[in-house]
Write a structure and sequence with these properties.
Number of domains: 3
CATH topology of the largest domain: Rossmann fold
Strand order of the largest sheet: 6-7-8-3-9-10
Structural class: alpha/beta
Radius of gyration: 19 Å
Largest sheet: 6 strands, mixed
Protein name: ABC transporter ATP-binding protein
Order of helices and strands: EEEHEEHEHHHEHEHEEHHHH
Strand content: 15-25%
CATH architecture of the largest domain: 3-Layer(aba) Sandwich
Subcellular location: Cell membrane
CATH superfamily of the largest domain: P-loop containing nucleotide triphosphate hydrolases
Organism: Gottfriedia endophytica
Membrane topology: Peripheral membrane protein
Helix content: 25-40%
GO cellular component, one term: ATP-binding cassette (ABC) transporter complex
Bound molecules: adenosine-5'-triphosphate
Number of helices: 11
Distance between the termini: 47 Å
Length: 267
């Protein structure tokens, strides 16, 4: 079994600003991890270390045992797919199909395999009506799914989704939720950065919490959201069900719909 491992990692941007300080994290293949924390805590910087877009200033990042310092970003991207927070930072082809195929051609896959991967990615993201269009002629929320399809098509064992639910309507959230279920059934590792705490409790078993350049907590959703110190320090919000349960006096440990239903059924 492989893993992504950050060992004593510090990262400074070229202007000298230190955005991550002494990160230690082990994400095993197949794990589903949400990274939460206030704006500017260093979450995006940290995930870019995982796919080789950022190389550590100090310490090491290993992907399935390979040190990212020894490889190009393109080489690491074949293992760790990263969907940018803003699709406009990722998309550069003038046609949706070309965008989804781009990495597959770079990896020199044969046409039959390219076609198989593209149709799977297109089906999972609902992009079939857009294939011949210019990505910049479709709405932003659809463009986000083009960027997700392009990464899904690479079929990496690890997929990073940076703020996937941001700007999505109910239909988009539904597509994402089905996609999360499929990736779970396939045993893929999904790592997400999100401010959407319902998305966290619905889909992720492990919650890594960051504040001020560092990881301050790492545990289950219940571990994190029942701890007022962590909530305060990371400036995160409890999922709505948790807030409601707390307000009506059910305590801090209730986070899931089924838990509140069970409690209410006793009254
Ligand atoms: N290219 C850069 N050069 C210098 N500083 C940067 C650069 N990119 C990001 N930063 C700074 O690094 C810090 C961490 O940014 P990062 O994007 O990792 O935070 P984040 O936790 O993902 O925030 P958000 O939730 O808003 O996306 C911020 O203070 C940001 O301004």
């Amino acid at each position: 079994m492989g893993a992504i491992e950050l060992k004593n990692v510090t990262f400074a941007y070229p202007n000298g600003f230190v955005a991550n300080e002494n990160l230690n994290l082990l994400i095993e293949s197949g794990e589903r991890v949400a990274i939460v924390g206030q704006n500017g805590a260093g979450k995006t910087t940290a995930v870019k270390l995982m796919n080789g877009l950022n190389k550590p200033t100090k310490g090491d990042v290993l992907v399935n045992g390979i040190n990212t310092k020894d490889k190009t970003t393109a080489q690491i991207s074949a293992f760790v797919g990263y969907v940018f927070q803003n699709p406009d930072d990722q998309i550069f082809n003038s046609n949706v199909k070309k965008e989804i195929e781009y990495m597959l051609r770079y990896l020199k896959l044969d046409q039959k395999e390219i076609d198989r991967r593209v149709s799977r990615a297109v089906e999972l993201t609902g992009m079939s009506d857009y294939l011949e269009m210019n990505p910049y002629d479709v709405p932003y929320s659809t463009r986000k799914f083009i960027s997700i399809a392009a990464i899904l098509a690479i079929e990496t064992p690890y997929i990073i989704l940076d703020e996937p639910t941001a700007g999505q309507d109910m239909q988009g959230i539904k597509v994402l939720s089905t996609l999360m279920d499929v990736l779970k059934d396939e045993g893929k590792s999904v790592i997400t950065i999100t401010h959407d705490m319902e998305f966290v409790t619905d889909n992720f078993t492990r919650v890594v919490t960051m504040a001020d350049k560092q990881i301050i907590a790492d545990g289950s959703a219940t571990d994190i959201f029942s701890n007022q110190n962590i909530i305060k320090q990371a400036k995160i919000k409890k999922p709505q069900i948790g807030e409601l349960a707390s307000e009506v006096g059910f305590g801090e440990n209730i986070l899931f719909r089924k838990e509140i239903v069970e409690l209410l059924s006793k009254y």
